[in-house]
Design brief:
Elements: E1 2-10, H1 14-21, E2 34-39, E3 44-51, E4 54-66, E5 70-78, E6 81-92, E7 95-105, H2 109-116, H3 119-138
Antiparallel strand pairs: 1-7, 2-3, 3-4, 4-5, 5-6, 6-7
Amino acid sequence: MSTVKEAVEVEVPVRIAYNQWTQFEEFPNFMEGVEEVTQVDDRHNHWTTKIGGVRREFDTEIVDQLPDERITWRTTSGDTQQKGTVHFQRVDDTHTRVELVMDVEPTGAAEKAADMLGTIDRRVKGDMRRFKDFIEHRGSESGAWRGRIKPG
């Protein structure tokens, strides 16, 4: 399993950065290779990705969510195995540090080769830069979900 870690500082308040991240169906706007995310309920999402010509579908479950602080998830089914946490840290009234830490288990030969070549790491870094551009250009969130999900 490979661990990928990337952080960006975005020029929006922590509430706006967090609120936007809870809009999972917007992820294709800034995540390369993500074709669609369908929010099934407050805890579950269905993902469709196409990376390197390989289409994958998988489901994720949010296992811990604390508004303006963190969202932790894991895959529950499908071809992809991953888990991760995105943290939101207030820098000041208009800046937020967003840090993503993700463990990914490459499944096929193409994914294993991409992992060895650092492609997964570069993709996550690019996704975080695109999130920064996306939220800063919007200036506000496209929606919000402020619920709390407790681990256990």
